[in-house]
Amino acid sequence: MNAKMDTTDACDLRFGQVGIACVRVRRVDAAALCDELERRVRAAPQMFARAAVVLDLSHLLNLPDDGAVDALLEAVRSAGMLPVGLAYGTSETEALAKRMGLPLIAKFRAAYEPAQGSAPAAEPATRAEPAPAVQREPILSAPPPGSMQGAQHHAGSVRSGQQIYARERDLIVTGAVANGAEVIADGNIHIYGGLRGRAMAGAQGDGKARIFVSDFRAELVAIAGQYRVFEQIPDDLEGQSVQCWLEGDKLLIAKL
Fold first, then answer.
1. Which is the most buried residue in 10, 19, 67, 178, by most CB within 10 A?
2. Which structural domain range is residue 28 located in?
3. Any idea which of 2-6, 14-18, 114-118 has the lowest mean pLDDT?
4. pLDDT above 90 for 225
């Protein structure tokens, strides 16, 4: 008797939001890059250890040669991160990516050019850092691209390991965001509960976006490509109702 042929597909292929961070290179110095990334990994190992990263060379005056790029990629690996591609740039960058056998990731471009928003004066948090560029596959459906739409609502808590992404709209969460959970929006984020995980507003580069939290205990907050990691919440902010916004390249946090 002939064996029955297995007609099951060998795999599924899907495109979605992915958790990839961005390393924006400002000078071609592999040793300095490794030292800086090692510092970031030590400061927030749960965030950055073995994080998938894209190398952005667009802010260099001249594109490095293949050997220099190899050294930068090895510096990222030595620091404990995993380079997975190059960020979108020029046709020369595309050719470089092909020679290096790396994918070219185009979606980061918007996050590199955040709009500059204005906001009321307040005491700033420490200087913001360039943000990891979001996102794992969202657990909620998102509307198609277009103009900013009405807010997306999530009733209840967001559990550890879950992510909510509101595309082209604000996000309102009427519950707590647990440690290890992420809430992301292209617009503003309103959390009517405790934030113990991560909140990232203005995900596509809107520097005017804000984050509002009823009970602030965050791991990370980010707006339009700038972020702040909290190893310890400042005493005057812990458990308080706060708002977060950008002023230039500084992420400001103030009690409501």
1. 178
2. 21-112
3. 114-118
4. no
What CATH number does residue 41 fall under?
3.30.70.260
Q: Which of 194, 187, 192, 160 is nearest to 173 (CA)?
A: 192
Task: Say if 11 falls within a structural domain.
Answer: no
Total domains, the chain? 2
**What is the DSSP secondary-structure string of 215-248?**
EE--SEEEETTEEEE-SS--TTTTT--EEEEEET
Structure tokens at 141: 């459906």
Cα distance between residue 50 and residue 229, in whole Å = 17
CATH (domain of 180): 2.160.20.70
Q: Which positions ≥6 away from 58 have C-beta within 8 Å?
A: 24, 87, 88, 89, 90, 93, 112
Q: Which two tokens stand for residue 209?
A: 């976006």
Are 63 and 87 in contact, with CB atoms under 8 Å apart?
Answer: no
Band (89; pLDDT cuts 50, 70, 90):
confident
Q: What are the tens digits of pLDDT across the range 133-169?
A: 333 333 333 334 444 578 999 999 999 888 888 989 9
Domain end call among 63, 83, 112: 112
